Amino acid sequence: MSNEKIQKVTIPQLKLKKESGEKITALTAYDFPTAKILDAAGIDIILVGDSLGMVVLGYETTIPVTMEEMLHHTKAVVRGVKRALVVADMPYLSFHLSQEESIFNAARFLKEAGAGAVKIEGASKKRLALIEALVDAEIPVMGHVGLTPQSICHLGQFRVIGKHIEEAKKIVNNALNIEKAGAFSVVLESIPLELARTITEKLAVPSIGIGAGPFCDGQILVFHDLAGFSNGYLPKFVKKYADLHESLNKAVENYMEDVKNGKFPDDSHSYHLKSKISLDELGLKK
Ligand code: KIV
After folding, report:
1. Which of 80, 205, 266, 279 falls between 20 and 30 A from 183, CA-CA?
2. 189 tagged catalytic
3. Domains, in order of start, for the chain
């Protein structure tokens, strides 16, 4: 085993990547084994997204996700990570009431779960003041504009945001205001690529795109989408790099067939008594 100390990904390094034009890689993870795989592959950022609710917990939206669920999964991810920056998503209602409660909730991700930063959706006046307060409390913040899934009750459906001028102007302002408030990066979700390009050029901090085209400083996808975990609907911006649904389905069918046919377990998957022990000694001889 190598004694070489692993260098953690830091927030200043992400800014340097933007400045040098080196793309930032990010994926979501919600558990220990996935986090280990992503980290060993050298991913820069692992987001414990509140997409947890839809991808892993089976909710229809991200709205029901709780602080306790997010903390539980963030802790598991942190245990699997040696290098990547772990960002924890603040779930709905964990940062909407008082500023004091929001800072307390955000700090739990750092103090209890070991994350390196939090992400919060939106850019209302209150939200911008909160980002300033979080940064003042030494909590690094990743912003999130464009499609903000926690706004689903307003939006009615997940859709591309900012195709038209008024909405587009609002998104540019939101991203710039989030940077001004002190965020170290901004997620741009489901927006036209032209808009993402303009925002990325205007921002000094890295933009991380999902459904925002190729001109962002970095890209993020939901791991389960990339891995093809589901055979259901996927948005246009997803690229499947594996078909785990198909492979796992096959594996389970093969297992069932082997069990039914007595092919599993065979000798190679079984244990033996020490040859010295006789059935007599076990008191089993007839
Ligand atoms: O919750 C999540 O996974 C996210 C990403 C899609 C950016 O917010």
Report:
1. 80
2. yes
3. 11-243 (3.20.20.60)
